Amino acid sequence: DVLGIWVRCITCCLTPPRPLHLLYCLSMFVGTVMRKIKSRTWKKQRYFRLQEDCMTIWYKSKKAGNTHSTFSVGDVEAVREGHQSEVLLSIADEFPPDRCFTLVFRGRRGNLDLVADSSGEAQSWIKGIRKLIDNLEHMGQREKLDQWICDWFKKADKNRDGQMNFKEVQDLLKMMNVDMNEHHALRLFTTADKSQSGTLEDDEFVLFYKMLTQREDVLRVFQEYSGDGQKLTLQDLKDFLREEQLREDGVQQYALKLIERYEPSDTARMLQVMTFDGFLMYLTSPEGSIFNPTMVELYQDMTQPLCHYFISSSHNTYLLEDQIRGHSSVEGYIRALKRGCRCVEVDCWDGPNEEPIVYHGHTFTSKIFFKDVVTVLGNYAFKASQYPVILSIENHCSVEQQKVMAQHLTQILGDKLLKTPLHGKFPIGLPSPEDLKGKILLKGKKIGGLEDSMNGVVDDSLMGEVSDEEETAEFNDDHHRNDSIRLSKELSDCVVYCKSVHFSSFKHSQIHSKFYEISSFTESKARKHIREAGAEFVLHNARQLSRVYPSGLRTDSSNFNPQDMWNAGCQIVALNFQTAGVEMDLNDGLFSQNGHCGYVLKPAFMRNIDERFDPENPQNGGYKPLSLSIQVISGQQLPKVNIKEGSIIDPLVRVEIHGVPLDQAKQETRYIDNNGFNPVWYDTLQFTIHIPELALVRFVVEDYDKTSKNDFVGQFTLPFTCIQPGYRHIHLLSKDGTSIPPSSLFVHVRITKLT
């Protein structure tokens, strides 16, 4: 009924409600027929509708049948208006841009391209979904919990009568990963059924959920510091913050801030005390997270030379799948750049009608136009970070099409493209990320040196042959390819601080290399150098940039371990961003600090050319090791990994240390039988960390299986230096690196100096 829809629009969607937003929501609740577009030839009508929870969008074919699909608004990262995807661009002549929009999902899920019947209907969905996303992003802890409870109620209420009988509750417990005996479940059900109706309604279900999720583990900590077991006085809270969370400065002000921010009771806030509910909300908030919130923000010195930073880097960025038959797409660049990637790659080849194309040469991967990649770069380079983007060009084009490339770069990027040294002066070293904010740097071949181009001595006679050492030689790492390509002056002039050169030896580089030169290494070559001359590699990387890329044998787009390369100070460690796994978890973990800006300052001992750090033998440098003790206490609402009905996980937690070889380690807890909802371990894992500045800590939850490989449940990776000690929650991420609230681990962390 219309009145019911209006009420839902006001209560669910809008804070504060505005008439225009109400109309958008109303249109979404009623539903709309739109075309779902997959290609020029695949265009099918679907009926879309926002469900009552204001979180789920339901859609189905117009044809008869019950098959339908749903997705959560929480899975949508952004809404793009107009012809903002390759699919919609391909049908631009058929449908005007004001009727077209694209839903971009988090993680590696494909886009949903839609065409509405009118621009008004398109706007209703575009603005409506954006409003819902905005509401979600600004939800407080309590609102998120309420939403979570509401979602479960709707899933369990099979006959949609707004009530839940005991059979529905039993089914719900299985859905929630809870293995509970019938007697205990019935006791909780009867206690919550205050009306004695034999069913649970709204408030009764909330009570049932609260009994189910009672945090005995957190209550133990609370009662240890509470004088009366009911509340924490200001002094109690200060004692907890000092003794457990190791807070040293401004403890009184911080305690008052926590009460003000997380205590739900007005009376308690007025009395400057914290109840258990407030304590739990603090511990599950970003301030109670294992990741130090001050290090999530930009906190590092950004004025050092470019070679003093690790730089988030992508390999063959245009590929969304494998390296042989995979789909090439500008979406690869959009996704990488929005994740904070600061070095993207293009493989350029001669294309039709004098238009250079991008694809993985000599393979069956599809092709895209170079000018489309440059357009996307201009549009998305600085959305996630203002710090410079390096465009790494593998150039296989004729001189004529190289001129076209230079033209596209100059015309499309304009002032964003750096074509001359900063301030017009010959530099004595690499500029900093701060100096280069908002700039796109080209990495590629250059005729002559930077000195020559600044003195104006490069002429057409130098337009001749430049050695090419790029990736087509990957299949044979030991045979250096010495083919030559002719290079156009126009493209050469676009290269300033990142001139690609062949690497001969560390001794040769030390004597002859220029600070603006950069060499590329296959993963196997890089490992060989680290083994044989690790300290020299670190020194080389203190002076200039290095790039490491995956072996050509990785045709499945798998990744190598980037940690090995970071240990040697390699800045541009290029990974296949499209492939989920431990390697991308490490990359995401390292670059999750410092404002997700794509640049992380290397440790001082890797920047100082007077120090000699060898990653293979770090103990020779006199570094003082630390002890890391992690007590894994409990898990909360872990996701199901097996969709088989009645299947409940047997979770275990593995903690992995990734760092220099001496620090590499992993330990596991016991597994807990049949409990993914609230497993409790109290298992303590101990590690020794020799080089904390390079260590990453990865928490992995798996479903134990005694007959086959354990199933992945969730993970979280962070730099060791970003860990907050004390009682902390770890908010788990999916295989794709997206959050899976409210799944978490509760741990106690201690870091001490080893004497």
Automatic annotation (TrEMBL):
<dbReference type="InterPro" id="IPR011993">
    <property type="entry name" value="PH-like_dom_sf"/>
</dbReference>
<keyword id="KW-0963">Cytoplasm</keyword>
<keyword id="KW-0106">Calcium</keyword>
<feature type="binding site">
    <location>
        <position position="394"/>
    </location>
    <ligand>
        <name>Ca(2+) 3</name>
    </ligand>
</feature>
<dbReference type="InterPro" id="IPR001711">
    <property type="entry name" value="PLipase_C_Pinositol-sp_Y"/>
</dbReference>
<feature type="binding site">
    <location>
        <position position="347"/>
    </location>
    <ligand>
        <name>Ca(2+) 3</name>
    </ligand>
</feature>
<feature type="binding site">
    <location>
        <position position="704"/>
    </location>
    <ligand>
        <name>Ca(2+) 5</name>
    </ligand>
</feature>
<feature type="binding site">
    <location>
        <position position="445"/>
    </location>
    <ligand>
        <name>substrate</name>
    </ligand>
</feature>
<dbReference type="InterPro" id="IPR000008">
    <property type="entry name" value="C2_dom"/>
</dbReference>
<dbReference type="GO" id="GO:0004435">
    <property type="term" value="F:phosphatidylinositol-4,5-bisphosphate phospholipase C activity"/>
</dbReference>
<dbReference type="GO" id="GO:0016042">
    <property type="term" value="P:lipid catabolic process"/>
</dbReference>
<feature type="binding site">
    <location>
        <position position="648"/>
    </location>
    <ligand>
        <name>Ca(2+) 4</name>
    </ligand>
</feature>
<keyword id="KW-0807">Transducer</keyword>
<feature type="domain" description="EF-hand">
    <location>
        <begin position="144"/>
        <end position="179"/>
    </location>
</feature>
<dbReference type="GO" id="GO:0005509">
    <property type="term" value="F:calcium ion binding"/>
</dbReference>
<feature type="binding site">
    <location>
        <position position="316"/>
    </location>
    <ligand>
        <name>Ca(2+) 3</name>
    </ligand>
</feature>
<dbReference type="InterPro" id="IPR011992">
    <property type="entry name" value="EF-hand-dom_pair"/>
</dbReference>
<dbReference type="InterPro" id="IPR000909">
    <property type="entry name" value="PLipase_C_PInositol-sp_X_dom"/>
</dbReference>
<dbReference type="Pfam" id="PF00387">
    <property type="entry name" value="PI-PLC-Y"/>
</dbReference>
<dbReference type="InterPro" id="IPR002048">
    <property type="entry name" value="EF_hand_dom"/>
</dbReference>
<dbReference type="Pfam" id="PF00388">
    <property type="entry name" value="PI-PLC-X"/>
</dbReference>
<feature type="binding site">
    <location>
        <position position="703"/>
    </location>
    <ligand>
        <name>Ca(2+) 5</name>
    </ligand>
</feature>
<keyword id="KW-0472">Membrane</keyword>
<dbReference type="InterPro" id="IPR018247">
    <property type="entry name" value="EF_Hand_1_Ca_BS"/>
</dbReference>
<feature type="binding site">
    <location>
        <begin position="36"/>
        <end position="63"/>
    </location>
    <ligand>
        <name>substrate</name>
    </ligand>
</feature>
<dbReference type="InterPro" id="IPR001849">
    <property type="entry name" value="PH_domain"/>
</dbReference>
<keyword id="KW-0677">Repeat</keyword>
<dbReference type="InterPro" id="IPR035892">
    <property type="entry name" value="C2_domain_sf"/>
</dbReference>
<keyword id="KW-0442">Lipid degradation</keyword>
<feature type="binding site">
    <location>
        <position position="547"/>
    </location>
    <ligand>
        <name>substrate</name>
    </ligand>
</feature>
<dbReference type="Pfam" id="PF00169">
    <property type="entry name" value="PH"/>
</dbReference>
<dbReference type="Pfam" id="PF09279">
    <property type="entry name" value="EF-hand_like"/>
</dbReference>
<dbReference type="GO" id="GO:0005886">
    <property type="term" value="C:plasma membrane"/>
</dbReference>
<feature type="binding site">
    <location>
        <position position="674"/>
    </location>
    <ligand>
        <name>Ca(2+) 4</name>
    </ligand>
</feature>
<protein>
    <recommendedName>
        <fullName>Phosphoinositide phospholipase C</fullName>
        <ecNumber>3.1.4.11</ecNumber>
    </recommendedName>
</protein>
<dbReference type="InterPro" id="IPR028391">
    <property type="entry name" value="PLC-delta1_cat"/>
</dbReference>
<dbReference type="GO" id="GO:0005783">
    <property type="term" value="C:endoplasmic reticulum"/>
</dbReference>
<feature type="domain" description="C2">
    <location>
        <begin position="607"/>
        <end position="734"/>
    </location>
</feature>
<feature type="domain" description="PH">
    <location>
        <begin position="26"/>
        <end position="134"/>
    </location>
</feature>
<keyword id="KW-0539">Nucleus</keyword>
<dbReference type="Pfam" id="PF00168">
    <property type="entry name" value="C2"/>
</dbReference>
<keyword id="KW-0378">Hydrolase</keyword>
